[in-house]
Amino acid sequence: MTFNIIKILISAILIALISEISKRSTFLGAVLASIPLVSVMAMIWLYIDTNDSAQVVQLSKGIFWLVIPSLVLFITFPFFIRLQFSFYGALSLAILAMVGTYFITIAVLEKFDIYL
Question: What are the helix (H) ranges across 1-116?
Answer without folding.
Answer: 2-24, 26-34, 37-50, 53-82, 87-111
